[in-house]
Give the backbone structure.
Amino acid sequence: GENVEQHPSTLSVQEGDSAVIKCTYSDSASNYFPWYKQELGKGPQLIIDIRSNVGEKKDQRIAVTLNKTAKHFSLHITETQPEDSAVYFCAASWFGADGLTFGKGTHLIIQP
Amino acid sequence: EADIYQTPRYLVIGTGKKITLECSQTMGHDKMYWYQQDPGMELHLIHYSYGVNSTEKGDLSSESTVSRIRTEHFPLTLESARPSHTSQYLCASSVPAHAGAKDTQYFGPGTRLTVL
């Protein structure tokens, strides 16, 4: 089955700086890679996703890159703000899978 | 904002009690899931369903049971709660993955269960 590794487990950055979270996956059949943000006391919410036929996708301050050859994908947040503080999860799946396979999460802390 | 709801949001009960955590969605999604989230925040899949009358066990063994009598409703039951069941329980739903479709899961707000 699929295995998703996520690093780092905790990331602390200064407000205004950029943050990068990296994930690797094991199953070359995976073709869908979403990212979720979970704030305290809430369920995870989808913030951006990418399909395997695309190398990069951007939505305002958030971008995701995918390298299918190396089987890794990354989340980039620029100009970080206090409201970006949360736990972020990467995930992977493929057509026919029972569901998403999640990474273990990254706790992002934005220092004022 | 996803239309998926969980009740109660918080529950504190004594050992040995039977409890049911409710999950409902109004998006008409066939697939539904239950996750257990530990203090380290990792998500563990405990149950899922492809549709009405379908239930499957997830990756993490759980003493809970689920049922799927209606598309919109996927309750989780613990027959006899124990302190080891103390956790955050998250419900999710998705459109089944098929060619061209994304397997995006939409999560509810969660139920924080504490068993004394």
User: Anything to note?
Assistant: The first strand of chain A starts at residue 4 and ends at 7. Chain A has a mean pLDDT of 93.
